[in-house]
Design brief:
The complex is a heterodimer of chains A (313) and B (357). Chain A is mainly β and 313 residues long. Helices cover 11% and strands 32% of the residues of chain A. Chain A has six helices and 16 strands. In chain A, strands 5, 6, 8, 10, 11, 14, 15 and 16 form an eight-stranded mixed β-sheet that branches. In chain A, strand 10 (203-204) and strand 11 form a beta hairpin. Chain B folds into two domains: 23-272, no CATH class; 287-356, no CATH class. The longest helix of chain B has 15 residues, at 92-106. Chain B starts with 6 loop residues before the first strand and ends with a strand. The chains are: A mainly beta (313), B mainly beta (357).
Chain lengths: 313, 357
């Protein structure tokens, strides 16, 4: 008689993350495990060979032999991609979150190698903005109010496929209604396009990463994309298929960034040449590169957005 | 059921356990008194001595190295009611101070507030024999962890003969241990539980006490009553055992010299330590219709799921990591699998994730 298969019940030893240790040390009851998620950071699904001639047993041979790393204790380094619970099993498409750069003047990243190619820019204070001149592509004013026509960050969510018309609505169960936006709290904070602060942050972890939860309850930040126009017909969304919601925000510079060079010296570079908006003049600035992460809390999809803070020296 | 990446852990999915872990700790005489002896300077590089001279520390490697671990301290003292106590003795007050300090912590006080003396059998009511001249072995927390395992403590010493004879095999060591203490031990100490250290077996003569939680062993100097000589090494060209017996060494030399004499008669020492692990186990249940898709960027190409040819194909995902989160979605703990675990709509998996404290 064969042995019973006990592979369905597995004991695993967990390690506390640095945030977990911080919460435990605080002694205020904030260390309470309330939920779990499953992750697959190491998996490359491109290795899934669904056309293997030998049959379905051979589809995932390469995936199953993927070596697994030990646990990272840095909370930001683990669980970057999570498994997703969707009751339906007959889905062929899943939504993604995509940076919308359709309008280069307002939502596009900077494209000048002499400035900050591939990044958004945040001018630390008004003196910096005046020095490098307003009008630089992708440059947000870290200490000023703004509007829809000023540079900002916009991420759209939906099915980025041309196989389904954007006229089709996105299923409600696949539509993001809440986003998490993470930014280093020492450098900046999230504001809406008018410059009013976003609610939160919900928490700031041990590495000073502030986590903002932004939902459709804040229509100045998140709202449904009302743009069922196909590609090439004047659309404003870069999602090619059915669309869900869009999140728009700006970044305000922190007081430390606006008023001093300490953080630039510690984490960035000083004495950098920066071509002004007129394309002729050159300013000397300090720069500091960071990443803002936008994660859909419903679908778990995330986008990392490069941001460069600059400050006139 | 809504689309989600997190699943709430219900109260029924959490349980607590307590586990005792034991490690075997061997401390051979070569570490305690042989390996790191430098004859030209008559010093041992793994023995740390202090200007105050109240005890000496034994390391497992020359203590000036960052690789060295402190393994125990050794000291000696006697009661002011001991027959050895005399103001004419070498460092008499220090030895009384050591005895009283250890007695305060390990034995406590009587009803009048006076410090109790170490009692041979732990029965203070019957008066009985007291241990008035005692060598103390204070083991480092690194070795004993939460406590010494009861019934596991043995120490082999050379209670008689010369050190030279011990080294060349002329004399055999005698084993002392807390025989039978796994089932019978004392609880009337302010420092926790303790057992009786006997010679040879569970009915042998009592020569000391082992305090399990404190990690301290008190051994009567009378163990060495039959030794014709006792004391530190004499150095290059000198003989060993410069004092005619243990009493003469304790009264006529410093604490550290007496401790060196003790170490020179050390053959072996073994015990098991105990670590008490309190664990919380979280049952993370992935039902058949949960966690079958992934937000991994490689899971889709142009939003199309890679692991499917058509919509009716079963979704499949692979688990490598389990994250435990706070209500605010802060990642508090992480557990990793040793290999990817396939999750489909046709299977259910329960991961038992253990968090130790």
């Amino acid at each position: 008689m064969a042995f019973l298969d006990n592979s369905g019940d597995i004991i695993l030893d967990a390690v506390l993350t640095d945030t977990g240790r911080m919460r435990m040390a605080s002694g205020d009851g904030s260390f309470r495990i309330a939920k779990f998620a499953l992750g697959d950071d190491e998996i490359d699904y491109e290795l899934y060979d669904k056309n293997n001639a030998s049959g379905s047993a051979f589809y995932d041979l390469n995936i199953l032999r993927t070596p697994i790393l030990e646990a990272f204790t840095n909370n930001a380094s683990s669980m970057n991609s999570k498994l997703l619970t969707i009751p339906r099993t007959n889905l062929l498409f899943l939504p993604i979150i995509k940076l919308n750069e359709a309008n280069a003047a307002t939502t596009g990243r900077n494209q000048s190698a002499a400035q900050a190619k591939g990044s958004f820019i945040v001018a630390a204070n008004m003196l910096t903005a005046e020095e490098v001149q307003v009008g630089i592509q992708g440059m947000m004013l870290g200490q000023a109010a703004g509007d829809e026509n000023q540079p900002h960050i916009q991420c759209d969510q939906g099915l980025d496929t041309s196989e389904i018309s954007p006229i089709q609505p996105l299923d409600a169960e696949l539509t993001e209604t809440q986003y998490s936006v993470e930014i280093d709290n020492r450098f900046g904070r999230i504001v809406n396009l008018a410059g009013q602060p976003a609610p939160g942050p919900a928490f700031i972890d041990d590495d000073n990463i502030a986590n903002y939860y932004i939902t459709t309850a804040n229509p100045t930040l998140v709202k449904l994309i009302d743009d069922p126009v196909p590609v090439g017909e004047g659309r404003t969304s870069t999602i090619r298929g059915p669309r869900g919601t869009s999140i728009k925000f700006r970044i305000a510079s922190s007081t430390d960034i606006a008023s001093g060079n300490f953080l630039f010296t510690k984490f960035g570079n000083t004495g950098q040449s920066f071509t002004k908006a007129d394309g002729v003049g050159v300013a000397t600035v300090s720069t500091l590169d960071t990443t803002v992460r936008v994660t859909g809390l419903t679908t778990g999809y995330r986008v990392d957005i490069p941001v460069r803070f600059i400050r006139k020296e | 059921m809504a689309t989600s990446t997190y699943k709430t852990i219900a109260n029924d999915d959490v349980t607590n356990t307590r586990t005792l872990l034991h490690e075997a700790i061997p401390l051979t005489g070569t570490i305690v008194s042989g390996t790191y002896y430098v004859e030209s300077s008559n010093t041992q590089t793994n023995i740390k001595r202090y200007a105050h001279g109240m005890f000496e520390s034994v390391y497992d490697y020359p203590y000036l190295s960052s690789s060295a671990n402190h393994i125990f301290d050794v000291t000696v003292g006697y009661s002011n009611r001991s027959h050895l106590s005399s103001s004419a003795n070498n460092t008499n007050s220090e030895k009384i101070q050591i005895y009283n300090e250890m007695a305060q912590v390990l034995v406590g006080y009587d009803q009048t507030g006076s410090i109790r003396r170490f009692d041979q059998d732990g029965n203070f009511a019957d008066g009985g024999t007291k241990l008035d001249e005692v060598f103390f072995l204070n083991y480092a927390r690194l070795l004993t962890k939460d406590e010494i395992k009861k019934g596991s403590y043995t120490i082999q010493l050379f209670p008689s003969g010369t050190v030279t004879g011990s080294a060349d095999g002329t004399w055999s060591p005698t084993t002392f241990g807390d025989y039978g203490a796994a089932d019978s031990y004392k609880t009337n100490s302010p420092a926790g539980e303790y057992g009786l250290v006997r010679r040879g077996n569970s009915t042998g003569q009592i020569f000391g006490l082992v305090y399990y939680q404190a990690g301290v062993v008190a051994l009567s100097a009378s163990i060495f009553a039959g030794a014709p000589g006792f004391g530190p090494r004499g150095g290059l060209g000198s003989g060993d055992n410069p004092f005619p017996g243990v009493d003469a060494c304790i009264t006529g030399s410093t604490i550290t010299s007496s401790c060196e004499g003790f170490r020179n008669r050390w053959e072996d020492n073994n015990f098991n330590n105990t670590t008490e692990l309190n664990s919380t186990i979280y049952f993370c249940r992935a039902e058949h219709n949960e966690f079958n898709y992934s937000s991994n960027p490689t899971y889709v190409t142009a939003s199309k799921i890679r692991v499917k040819n058509q919509a009716l194909d079963q979704p499949v995902s692979y688990v490598t990591t389990i994250g435990l989160y706070s209500q605010n979605n802060e990642l508090l703990a992480v557990a990793k699998l040793s290999e990817p675990n396939k999750k489909t709509a046709t299977n259910e998996i329960t991961y038992r994730v253990r968090l130790d404290y």
